[in-house]
Structures are given as C-alpha cells and as structure tokens.
TrEMBL record:
One matching Pfam family: FAD_binding_2
Alphabetical list of SUPFAM superfamilies matching this protein: FAD/NAD(P)-binding domain, Succinate dehydrogenase/fumarate reductase flavoprotein, catalytic domain
UniProtKB keywords: FAD, Flavoprotein, Oxidoreductase
Swiss-Prot/TrEMBL cofactor(s): FAD
Protein name, entry field: FAD-binding dehydrogenase
Domain FAD-dependent oxidoreductase 2 FAD-binding positions: 88-556
Organism: Enteroscipio rubneri
Region annotation Disordered: where it falls in the sequence: 41-75
Alphabetized InterPro entries for the sequence: FAD-dep_OxRdtase_2_FAD-bd, FAD-oxidoreductase_2, FAD/NAD-bd_sf, Succ_DH/fumarate_Rdtase_cat_sf, TAT_signal
GO terms of molecular function: steroid dehydrogenase activity, acting on the CH-CH group of donors
Length: 588
C-alpha cells in the first residue's frame, strides 16, 4: 500500500467539521456529532480550515539523529529587523483561543497585538464548553467537580496531564462563560447549553441503548445562537469567532494577518520579552512585549514529521481534515528557547471514515464520509480477520485499536442483511451528517465500491484478503457469544450482540481520520510555559492545542468540547495572570 500521507483525498475533505454540520443543517438534519468537535487552531482563512492537503513533510533529521525541527535556527539579528513595535502583550494566533484572550486584554486597557499566520481570524467551530455557568445552572444543569476531575484523569490516560489542570478549568470555566455570555448578549446573540436541547449526540455511544458504562459523560458544550435561539443545526449559523475579533478590535486590539511568528526573544535574565514575525513583504518585524507573550498557534498536525515524533501511531492515519497552517510553530519556538514538551500527543480522531481496499479514499455524495451501517456497533476485525474491540465503545475510542493494533490503521465492519431487524430500535442515528444508516445507503455504497456484498462468508473472506483460519475462528467465536447473550471477550453490550447469519453479507473497510493533535508545551497552573527543569519561563504563556499538560495519550470524547472549552478558558486565564487580575487558584 502507498504511504498513507500520500493517499488520494476525496472531494469532501476540503470541508471542516463545522462545514459538515452546516451542510447537514441546511439539509434539514437535526443531529450532529459533537463529542469531538473541539480544538484550538490558529486562524487560517476560512478556505484553509479542514484542508484536504496532507501534512507537509518535515525537514531531514539532523546529524544527531534527532528530528531537524528540534534544532533551533540561527537567531535573527537586529540588523535584519525592518520594524520594531513596542506593546504590552503579543498573542501568536488569532484562532478560537487567541481571540478571547485578545478580547480580555483589549477590554482591560492593554496594548495588545495579535500575530496571525493566515489571512483571517480562525473559523468558528461547534461550541465552547464549561461547568456550572449561569446559562447552565439556571436550567438545573450542574456537574460534580470530583466526579469530573477523577473521571477525566482515568479516561484520558492522564499520565502527563495534571488533575490540577482539570480542576483549574472546572473552577474558572463558569466565570469565563458568564463573561462571554455578557459580551454576546450585548451583540444580540445567545449562549445555549447543549444539554438543554432536544438534540441527540450521534454515534458516540452516549445516551444510546447499549452505551458503555465505563465512560462517564460530561455534556458540557455550549452553543452560540442568534437572537431567536437558532444555532448551527437549526439555521442560526453564528460566526462567533468573527464576533470575537470585532469586539477585540473595538476595544483596541491590533490584528496582523499574514504575519507568522517565527522566533521568540529571551533576554539574558531568562525572560521572554517579545516575538519576531515575518510580514507579507518577507520582512522581519520585532514586537517587544512589556508584559507577556501568549502562544495560541494551534496544533502540529500540519507537520507530519513532528506529529509522528510525538505519536508514531498517528502516522497510520489516512484521512486528514486539518488546518494546514497548524505546523507546530508555537511549540517549536518555545522549545528553541528552552521550553519543555509533552512526551506524547494524542489525536482528535474520527473512527469510521470509509476507505477503499487499496487504501485510498472514496468519493462519496454530499457530506457523508462514513459508509452506511459500517459505523454502527457491528462485528469489526483487522486486516487478518481478528476481532479488535467492543464495537459499541463511544465515538473516538474505536480509533485507538485501529492505530495501535493493526498494521494499516484500518478495520473491516461486517454485518448481514437482517441488521435492521436485529439492532435495537432507537439505538442509532438513522440520518446524521456523517452517514445515512439505511439499507438504501448500503446499496448505494455497494454500487460505489465502498461496501461489498457477498452470498457466502467464504466469498467475503477471499475478497477482503483475510487469513481464513484467523477470520473463521473470530467469526465463529463472535456468533457463539451472540447466541450465549454475553460477550466474554470484550463485554460489548448484549443489545448489540446479534449473530451474523442471514445472507447476503456485507463488509466495508474504514480508517481513522484526524482534525488536530492534542499535546504541546508543558505549563503550570498559571498557564506559564515550563523549561526542562519544570520552572516557568518568565513572560511566556501558552493555551489551546499549543499547550500540553492536559491530555494523556487518549483524547476523551465523553468530555464534550474539552479542547475548545479548556483552551479558551486557559487563554483567558493567561491574560488575567499577565495583567495581575484575580481568578480561582484552588490548586496553587
């Protein structure tokens, strides 16, 4: 099979997650997958979001055998500087985390300059998120702090994330959302908790029959709505990042688009005193930041060498729906002046993107990119025919076995023609923006060569290339467990344990796809970047996907909106810390 990074991309991959949602909403689809729609990327122009381009190739490894990106470039000398600007705060990245930071800095009277690599501010994503804010508590929607902190630590395989970080977000997210609500209300918009809406989360195993009891759900998303209460799924497509940029500009923030930050400045005392950027004329501009520098440049998925260095499993991903501007710029700049980095990254993954047998991506109609029924909790095996998982695990979880337990990052879903009668009524979304789980869709996928139809299991084995002995053993074992009513191998819920015994039989191959990485510069409970001795670098702060010290090697899909929610809140707290403003310090 060809290199996964060079695999052919389907036409719809030029759409972002938000674009998929908008397309579905316009088509009258009232559901969307929200558990993983989280992230914090630097503000690329709208057309750049969710680009179909594969990540750029990293530089060659250095003489030491380490990746070249770990070697600091030569410092930019003063005689190369075309312009110098003095200010209070520099924010690198005008995405969904840099924007609220710029709003608070500007409204607080700070002279703040925002450097953005792209030609515009970051495109709005699905939601923000928080706990026990006014918009939630007035509706009786409350969350227990201990339950959230301990569950999130366990679910994300904490390790490098700190429980204190989870508590910091929990304690300050309510005040952050309250502040944000006041601003949006003044602009004629509303914030609405997702948990208050009759809006089912699709294909994530939460709230569905047979949902795994191992995953405690925290439905913390808060949607942006217009004055009538309409949000993205009901025709109210609020450009909330645009509203943020407008507010920050009104309060005095200065945005510099097409000006990527390229080097941080650290003086002899060890303090980070500013940033050097490159303008559209390829000239260097030096920004002296008297109070502090905040890095919100997004993740590293656009640099495949860097991404693979921090999580080699992500090298198996075939389908990318990333912002190609997110090439780990903030992380690299931080490391070049002595900052420490998380040991590993995790991916914001989608588990069931359809893939052809040769490893390329199909051309599917509309916004659908999952094959019908293949994304439901049917029998799933690897390329040899070996069963992989409890197939009813919540949304992102089926991605992990495919990336760690298979050679190609793919799996096969297998089911029979009586699937509709066997599956629990109301147990799955029939129509959503990722797939149409109908027999009609299955038939269409068969015509497209995405799903394959067989009269016998032997034909299925031969076509899919399974090892006959391995597959037959797995298949027979699965049917035996279905007949017994208990999955003794993976403990999949009995509701979904239905035998595969009614021809014709179907098989469809799928891969994991990714929108961004989680993992970055280590930081403390004040959002200050840490050096390799665990000490803060004075004047340097980080938030969003540029920051580490929050996730383990698993992105927790059941903490819905965690990427956007904690990234925005921490960027807001970073500005508070820079300006000496008060916030909740329960952990320090």
């Amino acid at each position: 099979m060809e290199n996964k990074f060079d695999a052919i991309e389907s036409e719809h991959q030029g759409l972002s997650r938000r674009d998929f949602l908008v397309g579905a909403a316009l088509a009258g689809v009232g559901t969307a997958m929200v558990g993983t729609m989280s992230g914090c990327a630097s503000g690329a122009p709208a057309e750049d979001k969710g680009s179909s381009e594969t990540p750029e190739t990293g530089a060659e490894a250095g003489a030491s055998g380490e990746p070249a990106f770990l070697t600091p470039p030569n410092p930019i000398s003063d005689d190369e500087i075309a312009e110098t600007i003095d200010c209070d705060i520099v924010i690198c990245g005008a995405g969904i985390c840099g924007l609220p930071a710029s709003m608070l800095a500007a409204e607080s009277g700070a002279d703040v300059h925002v450097l953005e690599k792209g030609s515009s501010y970051g495109v709005a994503r699905l939601c923000t998120a928080g706990f026990n804010s006014d918009v939630q508590t007035k509706l009786g929607l409350t969350t227990d702090r201990k339950e959230f902190v301990t569950s999130t630590w366990a679910i994300s395989n904490g390790v490098q994330g700190r429980t204190s970080s989870y508590g910091l977000w929990f304690d300050n997210s309510g005040p952050y959302v309250n502040w944000l609500e006041g601003i949006f209300n003044s602009k004629g918009y509303q914030l609405i908790p997702a948990a208050s809406l009759d809006y089912k989360i699709t294909n994530d195993g939460i709230g569905m029959p047979g949902a795994s009891p191992l995953w405690q759900a925290f439905a913390q998303m808060i949607f942006f709505a217009d004055s009538e209460g309409k949000f993205f799924a009901t025709g109210g497509d609020v450009d909330w990042t645009g509203i943020m940029e407008e507010y920050a500009t009104e309060k005095g923030a200065t945005f510099h688009y097409g000006q990527p930050a390229v080097q941080l400045i650290r003086d002899d005392s060890g303090r980070c005193t500013g940033v050097i950027a490159k303008n559209e004329s390829e000239e260097y501009v030096k920004y002296n930041a008297a109070k502090g520098v905040l890095l919100t440049t997004g993740d590293m998925s656009g640099d495949r060498e860097m991404m693979a260095h921090y999580n080699v499993s992500l090298s198996k991903i075939i389908r990318y729906n990333i912002n190609t501007n997110d090439t780990g710029d903030g992380q690299k700049m931080g490391m070049w002046i002595g900052a420490d980095m998380d040991e590993f990254a995790c991916g914001d993954l989608w588990p069931f993107a359809a893939v052809m047998t040769d490893g390329t991506l199909p051309k599917l109609d509309g916004t659908h990119f999952y094959a019908g029924v293949a994304n439901l909790p049917v029998f799933m095996v690897d390329g040899a025919g070996r069963r992989l998982m409890a197939e009813n695990l919540p949304f992102q979880s089926p991605s992990i076995p495919k990336l760690t337990c298979t050679s190609d990052g793919c799996a096969w879903s297998i089911w029979d023609s009586a699937w509709k009668e066997k599956f629990p009524e109301g147990g799955y979304m029939v129509e959503d923006y990722t797939a149409s789980n109908t027999q009609e869709e299955v038939d269409k996928n068969v015509e497209l060569g995405v799903t394959f139809k067989f009269d016998t299991i032997d034909e299925l084995i031969e076509h899919c290339g399974f090892d006959k002995d391995i597959f037959t053993a797995s298949f027979n074992r699965y049917n035996e467990l279905c007949a017994a009513g208990e999955d003794l191998d993976f403990y999949k819920d009995p509701l979904w344990m239905t035998p595969i015994d009614t021809p014709p039989f179907y098989a469809s191959k799928h891969c994991s796809s990714m929108t961004s990485t989680r993992g970055g510069l280590k930081n403390d409970e004040r959002c200050r970047v840490l050096d390799k001795d665990g000490k803060p670098i004075p004047g340097l702060y980080v938030a969003g996907n540029t920051a580490g010290s929050f996730y383990g090697n698993v992105y927790p899909p059941n903490v819905m909106g965690s990427g956007i929610g904690h990234g925005q809140c921490f960027a807001w707290l970073a500005i508070k810390d820079i300006l000496g403003m008060d916030y909740i310090h329960a952990n320090i």
